[in-house]
Design goal:
With 267 residues, the chain is α/β, with parallel strands linked by helices. Helices cover 39% and strands 22% of the residues. The protein contains twelve helices and ten strands. Strands 1, 2, 3, 4, 5, 6, 7, 8, 9 and 10 form a ten-stranded mixed beta sheet that branches. Helix 2 (47-58) links the parallel strand 1 and strand 2 (63-69). The chain starts with a helix and ends with a helix.
């Protein structure tokens, strides 16, 4: 009788253990607010769903990250709640002001650049903001461009907004703007949208700005923050991910204006 009970207990453990482990997995939304194809959830080959799967695998059953698209305005409303749940990807503290200062930020895992794009038939080399004087520049609505608002207030430059980088490039191709800002990380997806892109697009050797990307979450989650810091370090040394980002070739050259700390993010 005892043996039967022991066998029954062992059978129950074998059946119940996977269920208990499944309950122990913490589901974490990985929020993405970018609308463009590089990061937007649901777009073919987007980096956000790949990142969620990679983080889930790296957690070895502890976390399940779910890539979740969230408009920037809704994200800002969510951040006003002290104990909001989830992680925001592809972000930088400078873009979130006082609200961002209250969050917990991971180490940087990616370096990116804001490129100045023009047509090959009329190539433009960026040489500092003074070189933009008199220009009308294609920008994306809702994007944060460092010190650009102050430049606009001088009246020496103007902007022509589009709802996406893809439409911004279309306006450039159609000669509706002479210049456009374009993130270096967007180039692979833009080449898919415009197969002949390299035949007509020119990128200035010097980006306007170089910036980093990190994860952030609500405070007081030390274990999750420690995990993301470990993965941020791993991302910097992961050749496949660095090829996916495809940004370092714009940052490493000296003319990029990147700091030494930013260049060190390229391995």
């Amino acid at each position: 009788m005892t043996k039967v009970r022991i066998r029954g207990w062992l059978a129950c453990m074998a059946l119940c253990l996977p269920w208990r482990l499944a309950l122990a997995v913490q589901t974490i939304p990985l929020y993405v607010y970018y609308p463009g194809p590089t990061f937007a959830v649901g777009m073919p080959g987007n980096l956000s769903e790949k990142m969620a799967d990679w983080l889930t695998q790296r957690s070895a059953g502890r976390y399940q990250f779910i890539a979740t698209q969230l408009p920037r305005r809704r994200l800002q409303m969510m951040l006003s709640q002290p104990e909001w749940q989830g992680v925001v990807a592809w972000a930088n503290p400078r873009w979130f002001g006082a609200e961002g200062a209250r969050q917990s930020w991971s180490r940087y895992y990616m370096v990116d650049a804001n490129m100045v794009a023009s047509l090959r038939s009329a190539p433009f080399e960026y040489q500092g903001d003074a070189s933009l004087h008199g220009q009308r520049i294609g920008t994306v609505e809702g994007f944060s461009y460092k010190d650009f608002d102050a430049l606009l207030q001088t009246g020496l430059v103007s902007k022509d907004e589009a709802d996406s980088e893809a439409r911004n490039l279309l306006k450039l191709q159609q000669h509706r703007v002479p210049l456009a800002f374009l993130q270096a990380s967007s180039m692979p997806s833009m080449r898919q949208l415009y197969p002949d892109l390299d035949s007509w697009l020119y990128l200035s050797a010097r980006p306007r700005t170089v910036f980093e990307r990190a994860f952030f979450m609500a405070p007081n989650q030390p274990q999750l923050l420690a995990f993301l810091n470990q993965q941020s370090a791993a991302l910097l040394n992961d050749r496949q991910w660095q090829q996916e980002f495809d940004t370092c070739k714009h940052i490493v050259p000296r003319q990029s204006g990147a700091s030494e700390a930013q260049r060190k993010l390229c391995r």
